[in-house]
Amino acid sequence: MWWQLPLCAFIAVVPAAVAVTVIYRTGKRPPRVVELWTPSWRKISPFWLLGYRGLVFLVMSWLLIQTVLIDGAFAFFFYTQWTFTLVIIYFMIGTVISAHGCWIYSRTPITESEEANGFLKGDLVNINALNLTLRADKDREDTRLPNRREGQLHEKRAGFWGYVMQIIYQISAGAVILTDVVFWGLLLPFMSDENLRLDLVMICMHSLNAVFLLIDTAFNRLPFPWFGMAYFVIWSCIYLTFQWVLHACGLTWWPYPFMELSTPWAPLWYLAIALVHIPCFGVYYLIAKGKDSFFSKLLPNSYIKSY
């Protein structure tokens, strides 16, 4: 039916346009430098967060390699592999930033010329004040830093890579929930076919993606604003555009049955998938905000609230 394509396109374009508008109006607000690599718990060393991110990066990379070895480039026809790769990129950037932060944290005061050679040139300034703040967070309960240093810490914002890390974190949060909910709740029970082989690698890819990210959320200090959903919506629209371009070039096979445009139910499926983005991101948003709200009240001397 000729009318299904423009209607489905309209269902996709409207959320994308809203998302772009939200991003434009909220503007760039990268996280503070200290939030990129320090845990939200004062007693936990940033080296633990570094080790966790590095380990997850290696494990997820190995799983993705196994999938590519089995399916080849065909694996990247699926939203799952797109999202899985994005989470890997998040942990890769997080590992590098954590490593740099821990290196700075473990050093004695360094000179400006040494700092200029760092990965986050332009991101980290006033390192001595940052070191004092981090060490004070670990060792003291009631002692406050001088107002000038505290103000510098709160005003210090991450540069390009810190901003990218936060955006990928927000996209991944909604995407991993969407991926796992659709797979376990829709595809596996109702739409299984000969192309869907449930094996250990597939089980891991549709579970560990969310588990690893949730554990990172439990310990990191990255802010999780509501408008991060806009990036999540754009991510899904990019994947949809990729699929439509492939089919415009002659591909006839759809990776997910509900993306098929020739069925009379196509607009309803597209609308349902568009709407399900809201609870998927909303669940993760509630988890992130609930963590801050609960632990900051229950353990105010041990937990550092994100902003």
Shape: globular
Number of helices, counting only DSSP H or I runs of 4 residues or more:
12
Task: Specify Rg, calculated over alpha carbons.
Answer: 22 Å
**Uncertain runs:** 110-119, 121-129, 140-154
Task: Count up the domains.
Answer: 1
- Strand tally: 0
Average per-residue pLDDT, rounded, comes to: 84
Which structural class fits the helix and strand makeup? Answer: mainly alpha
Taken in chain order, the helices and strands follow as: HHHHHHHHHHHH
How far from one another are the termini? 49 Å
Largest sheet features = none
Query: What fraction of residues sit in β-strands?
Result: under 5%
Helix content: 55-70%
Short overview:
This protein has 307 residues and is mainly alpha-helical. The chain is 68% helix and 0% strand.
Give a written overview of the molecule.
The chain has helices at residues 4-26, 34-37, 46-71, 79-106, 112-115, 127-139, 147-155, 160-190, 200-205, 208-219, 229-248, 266-298. With 307 residues, the chain is mainly α. Helix 8 (160-190) packs across helix 11. The protein is built from twelve helices and no strands. The longest helix is centred in the C-terminal third of the chain and has 33 residues, at 266-298. The chain has one domain (4-298). The chain crosses the membrane at residues 6-26, 47-70, 82-105, 167-188, 200-219, 231-256, 268-287.
Features:
mainly alpha, 307 residues, single chain, 12 helices
Topology:
Layout: H1 4-26, H2 34-37, H3 46-71, H4 79-106, H5 112-115, H6 127-139, H7 147-155, H8 160-190, H9 200-205, H10 208-219, H11 229-248, H12 266-298
Helix pairs in contact: 1-11, 1-12, 3-4, 3-10, 4-8, 8-10, 8-11, 8-12
